[in-house]
Specification:
Length: 146
């Protein structure tokens, strides 16, 4: 059982999903999340570090495809894909379509100095094996320019 599990009343779940679809602003979206999934968002950041240009490019490409602009990067507690967490799944899809990036807190961190988003050391090690030419030579908890 997850702390982000759907309400047991199907009408309440439908109501929340419909409410979510009517959200407009960043603050409305954040308030909705904090109201229904308290503690899920652990960080709201503005951009990726320039040390990882492929992350920036991927986000920009996704936003162009969705006909929106990049908004914010949300570091979240968990992303759970199962039938008991449909609100969470709908929410991730909705906010992604609206220019947000949703990232797990164990995979990404904020630069100690400027707050830009960097991969965690564990994700960096994985990326280094998969895309060695697109990551810095060494992992750091701060941007190379900081």
């Amino acid at each position: 059982m997850s702390e982000y599990e759907d309400p047991h009343d199907i009408d309440e779940l439908r109501s929340r999903i419909n409410e979510m679809k009517s959200l407009g602003s960043i603050s409305d979206t954040i308030n909705f999340i904090n109201n229904y999934l308290p503690g899920w968002i652990v960080g709201i950041l503005s951009e990726y570090s320039q040390d990882y240009p492929h992350l920036i490019t991927n986000w920009q490409y996704l936003c162009r495809e969705m006909k929106t602009e990049p908004k914010k990067i949300l570091l979240v507690d968990k992303i759970i894909y199962d039938p008991d967490n449909t609100l969470l799944i709908h929410l991730c899809e909705f906010i992604t379509k609206n220019g947000y990036v949703v990232r797990r807190k164990e995979e990404f961190i904020a630069c100690d100095r400027c707050g830009k988003v960097l991969p965690s050391q564990g994700l960096y090690e994985y990326m280094k094996t998969k895309i060695p030419n697109n990551v810095p030579e060494r992992w750091s908890n701060k941007c190379s320019t900081c």
